[in-house]
Amino acid sequence: MLGVVWLVTAIVLAAASWSVLVAGHPAHLVTLGVVALVGLLLIVRALRLRRRSRAPSRGPALRVVGRVLAALATVVTVVALVYLRPFSATPDAIAAMAGAPGVRVVDSPTQIALEPQNQPAARGLVFQPGARVDPRAYVPLLTQVSRGGVLVVIVKQPFDIGFTAIGAPGPIIAAHPEVRSWALAGHSLGGVVASSFAGGHLDTVQGLVLWASYPLGSLADTSLKVASISGTNDGLATPADIDASRPDLPGSTVFTPVKGSVHAFFGDYGPQPGDGTPSVSRDKAQQQIVAATVTLMQSL
What we know:
By secondary structure, the protein is an alpha/beta fold.
């Protein structure tokens, strides 16, 4: 029974999010493959024991403990995998992966690079997606940022969770010595992670852009140029949360409240549970998000 649960869970979740899993960091798809393999092995073991018409040689107490532990492991695994099911990018966002005039998109297993084609990229932006969000969902907005001569690199996070890729900006920055100044950015949990790296690498990072997010610790005494962009109708990173983050950010931080915007407007992945109700169109909200981001990048 436990083997069937592991196998079916892996198959159903893989089928439900196949296009996202294939396009994202390979860790998630590999994990589902391992879960399916464990399920098959459990089924094979049970069938072999049945053919022998006898139980394992362990004592009754050990069998009970083993079954309890196996059941707990199954519950934890299934709950975690169901929770980690990603929010898929919209068809328009997926189509943006083909590139746009003046911007080339380079996709790899661990990142999506947006490279400006009409001018050399003297500035760079490393972007950390929000929790469980398909990284392709940010390509349309960040393509507009890249058009201003900014190399944008979207991190593909293992399991689409920012804390699994907290050190990702380091190798990206090191791989592009031609870029003179760098900023980090992130949406929601991605912004929290970006703030942590920025605060610990002030020698290489000059700017920070928070999309519906706030810092992990205090950055008030740093020289970072910071832009905090948030939605007034956001049900997840609420206006109260953003206000509470003010003491942890430099006094020069530029706060941009996007009137009527919600959490899911900071990407193109559809609605998100727990979010607020928008009172502005997605296009108008995203125009303001892009404009505030571009302003910060131009200041570097």
